[in-house]
Amino acid sequence: MSRPRSLKPKRNVAARVLETARGAFAAVEGAPQLEEKGTALLVPGFTGSKEDFLDLMEPLTAAGYRVVAVDGRGQHESPGPRDETAYAQAELAADLLAQTDTVAAGSGGRPLHVLGHSFGGHVVRAAALSLPAGAPLPYTSLTLMSSGPAAISEQQQVRTQLLIDHLPTMDMETAWQAMRAMDAQVAEDGTAAQPADPDWLEEFLHRRWVTTVPEQLIATARQLMTESDRVAELAALPVPTLVLSGEVDYAWPVPWLDEMAVRLGARRVVIKGAEHSPNAERPAQTAAALIDFWTDAERRGGNSLTGE
């Protein structure tokens, strides 16, 4: 899970409720600090939330972008039903398109960029592919951040299966305590465990976990373990695409992401010193890569974009 460096609100960043045709979603929005160039819609991943992108807000808004990050249905501060079918990928994709409509309505016709982190990348892909054949894409560019071509690695499937097996039989607090106990142990390959989080971050991560609907976690965990390879379908869409990741990724190994970028004809950026969450681990470098990509996509008018 992403670990933001700070939760302190910036002057130009505010919480809001994103009202859409498919209901209300909790969001944070950053206002551009310069003349507005465009808008970015940021979609979090499994066990994540809108706060995962707080560290990107300052550099992106400083470059002139309006930035909207959302909680998906049942995720942290967005409501959701206690029914796994409500979190089918098609439902989440439809939610994203509804969020897109609302965000685009306030963009003044300026470019709209979409980014999906980890599982959020699969939702973004599904949303783009769900549009009718020949329908115009609402996005000027599409970014897959630490999000792979299909199901997660076998090693991560083992951990994810534990959640699927046990979450239905325990409350969220008990599940949290069990998960944190696992995190405190030394990994099987001998690497060091995750360093202890500061108290403010531990409190936030705990609160986010217990306020997320368990059926959302179970349904999305199943999707991470069974997602099909739809790279060829996405490659056929006329949208500039960026594949961005850290140097190490435990969910989808970096060579998988390299190969996916080639198949997509996408720009490929690896953020040095980052792992699965470059948005929080190296926000300045990540924002710089996004701004460069978005600027190129805008200059080229949303046509196919490849290369570095």
TrEMBL record:
Entry keywords, A to Z: Hydrolase
Keyword Nucleotide-binding attributed: no
Keyword field contains Nucleotide-binding: no
Domain named AB hydrolase-1: residues: 41-289
InterPro entries referenced in this protein's UniProt entry, alphabetically: AB_hydrolase_1, AB_hydrolase_fold, Carboxylesterase_BioH, Epox_hydrolase-like
GO MF term set: hydrolase activity
Domain of life: Bacteria
Pfam families, A to Z: Abhydrolase_6
Protein name in the entry: Lysophospholipase, alpha-beta hydrolase superfamily
